[in-house]
Amino acid sequence: MAFGRNLAFFLAAAGVALFAIAFLPSFDSFWSSWRKGRKVAEMVVLNATIYTSDASLPFAEAMAVRDGRILRVGDFSTIQDLIGDNTYKLNLNGNVVLPGFIDSHVHLIIGGLQLMRAELGGIRNKEDFVAKVTEAVKEKTPGQWVLGGGWNIDLWGGHYPEASWLDDIAPQNPVWLSRMDRHMGVANSLALKISGITRDTPDPAGGSILKNSDGEPNGLLVDSAMELVLNTIPEESLEERREALFVASRHALTRGVTTVVDMGRFFTGASVENSWVDLSEVYQWADSLGKMMIRVCLFFPLPTWSRLAELIRDKGHRLSKWIHVGGVKYFADGSLGSNSALLHEAYEDNPINYGIQIVDFDWLSNATLHSDMSGLQVAIHAIGDKANDMVLDMYSSVVSTNGIRDRRFRIEHAQHLLPSTAPRFGQEQVIPSVQPDHLLDDAAAAENKLGIKRAHQGSYLFQSLLDGGARLAFGSDWPVTDINPLRAIKTAIHRKPPGFDHAWIPTERVFLDDALKAHTISAAYACFLDRELGSLSPGKFADFVVLPANSWNEFAENPSNFVSATFVNGKQAYP
At what angle do helices 238-254 and 108-115 cross, to 10 degrees? Predict the structure, then answer.
């Protein structure tokens, strides 16, 4: 009986073995097939201090990436089963990881061009200004334009530059140098002559031609008056604009910026066609060749709203993983530094001046109404308190006419507000797209131009806007200020301009978490990209930065000044 049972067992085992040999793959092949059938990460980040910007899981220590997107975030045990033989393991030994920064307001190609021209940012006296321009002139042949910008007289506390500063050093070259905010510029006498600007040239609507005591143009042009010179400057070549994109993108990556909201080469006095030409000739060209380095969300001039609406109807908002079509933008006023921000009360240092209303508001309201009716997002530049109130009133009227929807209206800058205005942003769901680093240059100027009381009550009201329920979106307005999110975050937290030994308007300082969100998830929300970007969450693009800080406490106590590495689509893009 026992022999029979053993024989039966032996025959059964032999049958199974013969079946396996005949019909099953080898164990190694079977195991390999099983591994191929599951999702194996191409890269995992291990032993990191990951700030996700995702409220459902604020911090993590590991992250798995595949095909440029995040598979999973958590601790090591969470992602362990996603590690395969060929998975790259990035062991960070505690270093802080943040979502890739989103800069909510840049002029990307202009920024790249500025890096290729006379850079006057940070100049602190007339002598250095003249010396810098002299060097630029040496690189030109007679007749070539000398272009540059970034100057700010608040840094040297003296007079505005004039044509007379430039005439002796550039007698055979027309010169145009824009102020840091691009709402004012200075031309030499040759540039004025080429542009046909004389003592008899009237101020254009929405601009000013400044003159000396003899009634002659002194070289300074404000807002729409700049168009008189800009129209005579030869267009940048296609090669220059393409190179500017690459220069700008590489610069952004060094600062941890992986996405920008690009307002284009559009400002008062510039052609509305520039943004459209750059879309086809620069961005889509680079994308077609696989040369894009950072993601861009593009805004277009409001006068071309119907053209944009048609493009979105045909192609959608997402033209590729690199190029997103955003909305439309226009200007309500100028800037405080150029005395053209539109105010309810006159400037303290110029009692007859209330600023400049750049646009006819009937036209602006009508264009905004039709843009919104077509489903477009609208962003309006407003710096002065009156300009902000007028834009908020206009937005409210549009909502009343067109009805409630998720439109995410934006006001770009929102720098100087009446105290009663700040809560309106949250109540009316208007996004304040603000630039913290502007206050580093504006603090002293704001007190001089607005008076201390008015400046302190209404300038850069970040915390008041948050308290009112608004979602802040941080940006740089580069090249007005440098593209540098880590510095902007520090500025928003500490609010200490150069030369100040104390915080400027300390009640408006924000917490680190709010500042980080304003450069990540809230910035993504502000341009309708929060489903793809802004947090290190499963399914989103694997865009992130690595900081030198070795713990969260270290970073929170003293936020880093630079990034150690920038990753886009899960691949190292810098250094």
Answer: 90
In the chain, count H helices and then E strands: 22, 24
CB atoms within 10 A of CB 571: 12
Task: Name the residue among 186, 212, 187 with its Cα closest to residue 199.
Answer: 212
- Which residue is associated with the tokens 């192609």? 315
H helix runs in 255-327, sequence order: 274-278, 284-288, 305-315
The closest of 549, 546, 543 to 565, measured between CA atoms, is: 546
Q: Angle CA(21)–CA(27)–CA(29) in degrees, nearest 5?
A: 100
One-letter amino acid at 145 equals: W
Ranking 23-32, 237-246, 293-302 by mean pLDDT, the lowest is 23-32
Please enumerate in sequence order all residues whose Cβ is within 8 A of that of 570, keeping only pairs 6 or more positions apart, or say none: 42, 43, 65, 66, 68, 69, 542
Give 80's contacts (C-beta < 8 A, 6+ positions apart): none
CA–CA dist 39, 69 (Å, integer): 12
The token duo for 384 is: 């002065």
Q: What is the pLDDT of residues 113-149, one digit of tens each?
A: 989 888 888 888 899 999 999 998 998 899 999 998 8
Query: pLDDT > 70: what percent of the chain?
Result: 93
- Please state the pTM of the whole predicted model: 0.85
3-state secondary structure at position 384: coil
Separation between Cα atoms, residue 375 and residue 310, nearest integer Å: 11
